[in-house]
Amino acid sequence: MLYQEGAVSGLRSPADLMQRYSNSATLPPGTWMPQSLWLIGLIFFLFTWLPLLLRSLFALLGGDLAKVRSLAGARTIEEDAADEAAHTAELKPAADLLKD
Asked: Are 14 and 1 spatial neighbours (Cβ–Cβ below 8 Å)?
């Protein structure tokens, strides 16, 4: 027989190992918290993504490609540059007030 009780320190019987592995299927007491946060995040993602998908799909089926692009498309470099220039122009008067 390969297994002998107490022959090697720390070696457990096969029945003891099966008992340990069968009990590992349940979540430990502290794991439900991060798991529930992950689930809440997934549900929130679905509730925000699904309406956007439906609006984009209806706009696409209606032939409104400009609406699809504004909802789900990426901004062009020109749009980004124009937005950044407008934002900088808004901040410039505030920066001038700090100089005085």
From this structure: no
Is 9 within the bounds of a domain? Answer: no
How many Cα neighbours within 13 Å face the side chain of 12?
Answer: 8
State which residues form the domain around 74. 34-99
Residue 89 covered by a domain: yes
pLDDT band for 17, please (50, 70, 90 cuts).
low
Q: What is the pTM of this model?
A: 0.49
Which pLDDT tens digit goes with each residue over 26-35?
A: 656 677 788 8
**DSSP H stretches of helix in 1-100:** 14-22, 32-61, 65-72, 77-99
Within a domain: residue 47? yes
Per the structure, the count of domains in the chain is 1
